[in-house]
Amino acid sequence: MAPGGAPARSFVVVVLAVIALSAIVAVAGTKKALSTVDVEEELDAARAAIRRAARQHRHGGGGDVGSANWLRFYGGEADYDLLSRVYRNPAAFYRSYVEMERRFKVYVYEEGEPPILHEGPCKNIYTIEGSFIEQLELMSPSDAGGGVRTWDPTRAHAFFLPFSVSQMVKFVYRPPSQDRPPLRAIVADYVRVVAARHPFWNRSAGADHFMLSCHDWGPYASRGQPELYTNAIRALCNANTSEGFRPGKDVSVPEINLYDGDMPRELLAPAPGLESRPLLAFFAGGRHGHVRDLLLRHWKGRDAATFPVYEYDLPAAGDYYSFMRRARFCLCPSGHEVASPRVVEAIQAECVPVVIADGYALPFADVLRWEAFSVAVAVGDIPRLRERLERIPAAEVERLRRGVRLVKRHLMLQQPPRRLDMFNMILHSVWLRGLNLRLHR
């Protein structure tokens, strides 16, 4: 039942009616063809600057690596060898990010009403979905000079569809019916409305539009509108390449679980060094999906002293984050879907994440070399997991942890957003899709 006792399906009808009514009066002048010359010129200038930086890096030059701007951007402790190991092309990323800050503008469609549109959950496993929507919505016209949001759609390089799949599930879906088509209907109707009121969707067939969802059903909901699924940028936590996620077009979003909306204090404290981490690896979690079931069947209870693997039965003497801070490796198996919030938690605890998943497109992989700060293990190698980790020498573990420390800020959710944090890295991924340029050698 929806709030107030009305059946969920009736709520869908009301939502669709409200959205549809907003399209009755068309905005004057939207039938006219809009010039894209200025926007394209800006993108061309950015592409040229990034390519110059990338060529300079490939030919052995560090570009601005010695400049004060560069050092402030990456942090004074980062040397060029470390940057080249962690970033695919540090010179190109620096130039791309600066060009994004200088030029990138996003138009947020104003059609529709909460709770399904313009807001989302800012706590729990879907935190990033609500937080991203909220941060864009909180921007005001007075911020326009220095912010990414624009209220002039003719200046926009990208258009955001501010619906929340998590909110759709909360207010529309009726468990355990498996009746999910209403989610697709809402998405399809919203796209129909903005396409009728504005010329921008039809101009590009949705290719410069994007959505963001951290719900497992985000990919399913996106299929409600064929052009959204095929052409638009889908920013998804459930970034499974075996289920239609396309890394060159779509954006992989880090999954983060904030129980009260804030980063846990335990993960904000200075992390222990390698000498204070007696545990080889750690995992705790439920049997969500076949990967975790396989992990728990092989390793649960085998060696609590150095290789603790639990379900929800952690000993009273320790808590989840304290185990992460005492482990060299943190196991991050996929659950029902490929993404896991443990990847972000591990990095914040400076514990090397061990990603155990098949078909997972890792976040920000256009920019980051995940092999420089994580370990990838195929699902079929779970029986040999301990042997695999024990063969990694201490010096290599420390090199991986240096990479972890360097990328921590990219996986931090800040309020308000800060340079190079998760919010802005997601925007940068969208910016790259608009440029159609991937930053690698």
UniProtKB/TrEMBL annotation:
Membrane topology: Single-pass type II membrane protein
Residue intervals of the Exostosin GT47 domain: 101-391
Glycosyltransferase as UniProt keyword: yes
Keyword line: Glycosyltransferase, Golgi apparatus, Signal, Signal-anchor, Transferase, Transmembrane
GO cellular component: Golgi membrane
Superkingdom in the source lineage: Eukaryota
InterPro entries: Exostosin, Exostosin_GT47
Pfam families: Exostosin_GT47 (PF03016)
Signal peptide (residue range): 1-29
Protein localization: Golgi apparatus membrane
UniProt GO molecular function: glycosyltransferase activity
Predominant cellular place of this UniProt entry's protein: Golgi
Protein family membership: Belongs to the glycosyltransferase 47 family.
Protein name as annotated: Exostosin GT47 domain-containing protein
Native source species: Oryza sativa subsp. indica (Rice)
